[in-house]
Amino acid sequence: MPFDFRRFDIYRKVPKDLTQPTYTGAIISICCCFFILFLFLSELTGFITTEIVNELYVDDPDKDSGGKIDVSLNISLPNLHCELVGLDIQDEMGRHEVGHIDNSMKIPLNNGVGCRFEGQFSINKVPGNFHVSTHSATAQPQNPDMTHVIHKLSFGDTLQVQNVHGAFNALGGADRLTSNPLASHDYILKIVPTVYEDKSGKQRYSYQYTVANKEYVAYSHTGRIIPAIWFRYDLSPITVKYTERRQPLYRFITTICAIIGGTFTVAGILDSCIFTASEAWKKIQLGKMH
């Protein structure tokens, strides 16, 4: 007797004349198809959409930066002349720079009464401070007005990613125009290294930061100390990493198969139970069951 290859068919076919269609089965089948379509579209949307996963670890991610962090500062002092405004930088490695001018620009405001300072500079990866003050002016004013508005203060690369919400410009929009004109302002910053890796593996290095601030009028034995706007910073050893990921194709196919197979199986069980109960009820009505 020749070998019949059809024996390996695990999907045996049932002749149509041995099957019985029902209204309940039709309703369940239609609902089942709509349910499968809904789950399929949901999984397809998740497969197409890029997922951003974040993790924390202890490391210095940007080792090629030479131990430097790029800083971008944009601040307006509406009641202080540009000739008096300067940027000073200090840190624990011994850096002490008064009147930093590289990559900086001063824009007069209010017909020369005020000044907008825009600067890009670098700081060492050690605790320190940079401050806007009149320390670099050739002649110190009697009563410098340090009221200000901070438009931007950011560290590292600018990340413009829709699904990443972080404190990359926590001081942006800070308004101190109603504060005491003779007061100093201390902004205490805790800088957190941040890495963003896109789907191609390219990494961008930025920094988030938290901030606390205080306002005070300082005095010494010689009298009132010249006010300034201080940004005192320290770095966190914890790095935050954001990674773009997309669901693998094999996982998408596995999920679709599970949706289709599981839905049809559950629907088949439900239809079988309803059909069996219906047949039993008919027999009871006909008096065939006691």
From TrEMBL:
InterPro entries, per the entry: Erv, Erv_C, Erv_N
Cross-referenced PANTHER family: ENDOPLASMIC RETICULUM-GOLGI INTERMEDIATE COMPARTMENT PROTEIN, ENDOPLASMIC RETICULUM-GOLGI INTERMEDIATE COMPARTMENT PROTEIN 1
All residue ranges annotated as the Endoplasmic reticulum vesicle transporter N-terminal domain in the record: 5-97
Principal subcellular localization: endoplasmic reticulum
Compartments reported by the entry: Endoplasmic reticulum membrane; Endoplasmic reticulum-Golgi intermediate compartment membrane; Golgi apparatus membrane
GO CC annotation: COPII-coated ER to Golgi transport vesicle; endoplasmic reticulum membrane; endoplasmic reticulum-Golgi intermediate compartment membrane; Golgi membrane; nucleoplasm
Record-annotated membrane-spanning stretches: 20-41, 249-270
Superkingdom, natural source: Eukaryota
Every Endoplasmic reticulum vesicle transporter C-terminal domain range: 110-271
Keyword Zinc listed: no
Assigned keywords, A-Z: Endoplasmic reticulum, ER-Golgi transport, Golgi apparatus, Membrane, Transmembrane, Transmembrane helix, Transport
Family: Belongs to the ERGIC family.
Membrane-protein topology: Multi-pass membrane protein
Pfam families tied to this protein: COPIIcoated_ERV, ERGIC_N
One of the GO biological process terms: endoplasmic reticulum to Golgi vesicle-mediated transport
Protein name (database record): Endoplasmic reticulum-Golgi intermediate compartment protein
Purpose: Plays a role in transport between endoplasmic reticulum and Golgi.
